[in-house]
Amino acid sequence: MVQRTVSRLIPAIEVTEGAGVTVHRTIGTPALKSLDPFLMLDHFGSEDPDDYIAGFPDHPHRGFITFTYMLDGHMEHRDSMGNRGDLRAGGAQWMKAASGVIHSEMPKQTQGRMRGFQLWINLPATEKMSDPAYQEFSPEAIPEVQEAGRRVRLLAGEYAGQRGVVDDPNTDVRYLDVALDANVAFSLPLPVGQVAFLYVYEGNARVGATALPRHHLAVLAEGDAVELLAGAEGARFILVAGHPLKEPVVQYGPFVMNTREEIEQAFADYREGRLVRKKAAMTGA
Ligand code: CO
Fold first, then answer.
1. What domain range is 105 assigned to?
2. CATH of the domain at 228
3. pLDDT tens digits for range 58-85
4. Of 56, 74, 230, 244, which sees the most CB atoms within 10 A?
């Protein structure tokens, strides 16, 4: 086995998104523009309503998947497919924007802690203009594996013979949320060729000799396994891995395509009301 080491540590930078929401971004920053097939990782987390109350009013996406995982709090989702979703603590939402979705994500709370992650996963050229799709998972729907000193929630991919709630055939994405007690180790085989990262959001941990500070993205070097050891406070982290698409990426804000012409087309379609090809039936209710 070749244990993966940490090849890069990317500190999160604060970014204002939506109507004035503060998020901590690692993938999708000048230090790490993308990590094929991952385009963006935002960690939102605050007990101050001023940081989240404005929410994310209607905005478009085209060409990729947004995968949202709520740790704390309550958000309401509405989209141009006609979906209305409730995102609660421990739940997740998989939205394949593909050819185009307009949606809003608004807080359903006026106080207390709001915390979670949004990951953007790229789609291959052959799927960028396919039909959008939406899946939502309640906290109870997400499989959880309990072992001595470890709790692993499976959002995507396999762990200990169980499978997460979503499968992405293009990238074979794996997404685990792991909680470790103090000084407990966690190891996992990771296929050679997969891009993988860790993000510690509570406590502390290390991979080999490298300490993983909180709110840093730790990009893993090539290898076929990873081993992580929690520190004296224990640790909570996400582990995400997937196969790179190895295609050209041209991104402009909420549109991620393969060429500049396709981006210009996305803007034109949005401006002219053609971004959403399949509109939800409007009942006027
Ligand atoms: Co969005």
1. 6-276
2. 2.60.120.10
3. 999 999 999 999 999 999 999 999 999 9
4. 230
The alpha carbon of 61 and the centre of ligand 1 are apart by a number of angstroms equal to 7
Closest CA to 39 of 274, 199, 245, 260: 245
For residue 67, the CA-to-ligand 1 centroid distance in Å is 10
What is the reported pTM? 0.95
Could you read off the pLDDT of 100-154 as tens digits, one per residue? 999 999 998 888 999 999 999 999 999 999 999 999 999 999 999 999 999 999 9
Give residue 263's pLDDT.
98
Q: Does residue 29 form part of some domain?
A: yes
Is the previous residue joined to 139 through a cis bond, with omega within 30 degrees of 0?
A: no
Task: Say how far apart CA 276 and CA 82 lie, in whole Å.
Answer: 12
Please tell me the distance between residue 239's alpha carbon and the centre of ligand 1 in angstroms. Answer: 22
Among candidate residues 25, 23, 47, the one with its CA nearest the CA of residue 34: 25
In-domain check, residue 172: yes
Distance separating alpha carbons of residues 66 and 98, to the nearest angstrom: 10
Count: domains in the chain: 1
